[in-house]
Amino acid sequence: QVQLVESGGGLVQAGDSLRLSCARSGRTFSRYAMGWFRQAAGKEREFVAAISWSGAITYYGDSVKGRFTISRDNAKNTVYLRMNSLKPEDTAVYYCAATTRGTSRLENGYDYWGQGTQVTVSS
Fold first, then answer.
1. Cα–Cα distance for residue pair 77/97, rounded to 1 Å
2. Alpha-carbon gap, residue 120 to 89, rounded angstroms
3. pLDDT interval class at 42 (50, 70, 90)
4. What is the pLDDT of residues 74-103, one digit of tens each?
5. Do the beta carbons of residue 100 and residue 31 sit within 8 Å?
6. Which of 95, 97, 96, 92 is nearest to 119 (CA)?
7. 73: Cβ contacts below 8 Å, ≥ 6 apart
8. Where does residue 22 rank: exposed (0-12), middle (13-18), buried (19+ CB within 10 A)?
9. In angstroms, what CA-CA distances link 79 with 16, 24, 25?
């Protein structure tokens, strides 16, 4: 099994930056692509960003492109999401996900999920 634990969420003001982390434990010998999704209250879960095992491939959702950056440190089994120029509409629970099936923008492309971390952006 794989366990994912997100951290770094919090309450910030519009225009601020925040970095989320997702630590992966368990079956570390497998090569996992990682993704970030978010879900705002009353809305469906939305794709935010994804990164391949090597880090050579990254995908971003249209609403965060140019503001958010996904990265990873495989030695630490950790993936990061750097969020700049935050907006109130970025307020959501952010989830980390992992898959061995290749980098994906789709929820059903991921096998393991974290519990989420709340990000709240005030105007």
1. 13
2. 9
3. very high
4. 999 999 999 999 999 999 999 999 999 999
5. yes
6. 92
7. 79, 80
8. buried
9. 20, 8, 12
